[in-house]
Amino acid sequence: MRDDNLLVGTEYPDDAAVYRINEDLALIQTVDFFPPVVDDPYHYGEIAAVNALSDVYAMGGRPLTAMNIVCFPCHKLGTDILVEILKGGAKKVAEAGALLVGGHTINDDEPKYGLAVTGIVEPGELFIKGGVEPGDQLILTKPLGSGIITTALKGEIAPAYLLEEMTHWMTTLNKGAAEVARKVGVKTCTDITGFGLLGHIEEMIRGSGVDAVINVQAVPCVEGVLELAKEGIVPGGARANREFLRDKLVFAEIDEAMLDVLCDPQTSGGLLMAVKKERASEAIHLLKNKRLSYASVIGEITVEKGKGQILLR
Ligand code: CO
Ligand code: CO
Distance from the CA of 51 to the center of ligand 1, in angstroms? Predict the structure, then answer.
């Protein structure tokens, strides 16, 4: 069935579904949940909520309500841990200015937690994944490395300082980043999650007849992540992303480990936005004021080959 009010549905990859209610208002709907990525239940709850809310911010919207989705082995782990997870989630929903209005819990051997989030946006202010133009500057608002660090954590070899640093970023809402994006007139935006930085860039330029030139030196990652990647501590997803992008990547010479970092699947990653050249330095300044200290221009859109390729320099 077709409905012209469905502005974003399942036909094209995007961060959330968008349904227009009237000329001035559209609903954004999204859902995300996953097993624990860190050991601390409270932080896990925070990360899951920040990640679920992120897709609303990536569409330029404001979250209104959220509902918990919980799978939990109460008989095995007891309810104290679950309470901590839910407290962490509730804290981030409140920080986002949204309301937690319900949820559903089932028994499951492996815990999983996340939320279904509803937000609103003015149809004219909607961010989409496509629509980039030559000259657009690509800005990333959080450092990379969460997939590699959580993989190290599973092997019990994640240095404590690294985990602490990454947890800080995974629990940082993309609210401030989205506010800056709106202020500098962004139209194209997405959040970095499972496909890694390069996978999400590929989605952004797909079918647009443009290429992306990435300045690899400028891509922010948490200090110590490259060293872990050099030791081969890389999640399977990073390799799958690399394989998927094989025909799209153009480079002369690049460190193998850096390529893994660029393809590392992120949990609760930052926003990737295309900003007009003349607004880019303003955007970076505003992002740093929001304490997004790693925010950087990592590359730009060109028509060098016009084949939807990612040129790594
Ligand atoms: Co997303
Ligand atoms: Co998502």
Answer: 8
Q: What is the pLDDT of residues 140-171, one digit of tens each?
A: 999 999 999 999 999 988 899 999 999 999 99
What is the 123 CA–ligand 1 centroid distance (Å)?
Answer: 18
The pTM of the full predicted model, rounded to 2 decimals, is 0.96
How close is the Cα of 157 to the center of ligand 1, in Å? Answer: 29
- pLDDT for residue 1 is more than 90: no
d(CA 239, ligand 2 centre) in Å = 20
Q: Which residue has 């050099």 as its token pair?
A: 230
C-alpha 88 to ligand 1 mean position (Å): 21
Helix axes 160-170, 146-154, angle to 10 degrees: 130
Closest ligand to Cα 203 = 1
Q: Please name which ligand lies nearest the alpha carbon of 269.
A: 1
By residue range, what is the domain housing residue 248? Answer: 137-312
Query: How far is the centre of ligand 2, averaged over its atoms, from the C-alpha of 65 (Å)?
Result: 16
The domain boundary residue, chosen from 98, 125, 152 = 125
Q: Are the C-beta atoms of 37 and 150 separated by less than 8 Å?
A: yes
Do 276 and 189 belong to one domain?
yes
Q: What are phi and psi of 236, to 5 degrees?
A: -55, -30
d(C-alpha 241, C-alpha 264), whole Å: 8
Identify residues whose C-beta is under 5 A from ligand 1, the ion: 15, 55, 191
CA 37 to mean position of chain CA atoms: 15
Q: Kindly list the distances between the CA atom of residue 301 and the CA atoms of 42, 64, 130, 134, in Å, as whole numbers in the listed order.
A: 40, 33, 12, 5
